[in-house]
Amino acid sequence: MATLIWVILLYLGLNVTNPDARKANKSYENGDYESAKTWFYSALDQDPNNAEILFNLGNTLTKLGEIEEAIKVFMQAKSYTDDTLLKALADYNIGTVLAENEQWKPAMKHLRASLQKLPLDSEGQFNYEYALMKASDEEKNNEKNQDQNENQEPPSEPSVYARAVKEQADALVNESQYASAFNLMQEALGVDETVRYYESFINRIGAVNQIEESDN
Questions:
Q1: Which domain holds residue 185?
Q2: Is 200 a domain residue?
């Protein structure tokens, strides 16, 4: 059977005017990921909304096995840029990380989002189709092994993806972006059942969002 072409993609257009970012890049190239992580965070202290630095920090965290934090950072990178390529690469890397951890439905979602931005990416097309197949198989197995009950108790533990999404939603709430936070959680719920662990949080921000919409 064919396997996925799982390669974490780098963003070579990184703005290197930040001296700590340059040091981070050098450390990354030398395989010193702990040092790169330190320098990237230092660079972000000076420029916290720099999507390119965030993106390469996400790559570094992935190399260190800090998957939850890496996904969160890639999501932040997406939110701080209008660059279509950077958004596509971030979605691709999120999908790659999730697929490597066999979280097929959310992986499929992000790989599809990447492919929509870069439709001629043959490697991305192959990976998306593979993740789609695995997600379909997984869903069929779940249907065989458990009854589908809308009233079942929330899962006892959220997945890595669910925790990363929740952290990003928390950041949006802190900026009073309730609609964005609610939509983020709802989209994640559609691909990861364990997001229901945060059901009370989703209901709360949904209620606040409704109040804000009625006031406008």
A1: 160-215
A2: yes
Cα–Cα distance measured from residue 48 to residue 41, given in angstroms and rounded to the nearest whole number: 9
Examine the domain organization and report whether 57 and 87 are in the same domain.
no
| Distance separating alpha carbons of residues 185 and 171, to the nearest angstrom | 12
Query: Are 203 and 181 contained in the same domain?
Result: yes
Rounded-to-integer distance, Cα 215 and Cα 119, Å: 40
Please report whether residue 86 resides in a domain. Answer: yes
pLDDT tens string for the chain (216 positions)? 344 455 555 665 555 678 999 899 899 999 999 999 999 999 999 999 999 999 999 999 999 999 999 999 999 999 999 999 899 999 999 999 999 899 999 999 999 999 999 887 777 888 889 888 988 888 787 666 555 455 556 667 999 999 999 999 999 999 999 999 999 999 999 999 999 999 999 999 999 988 877 765
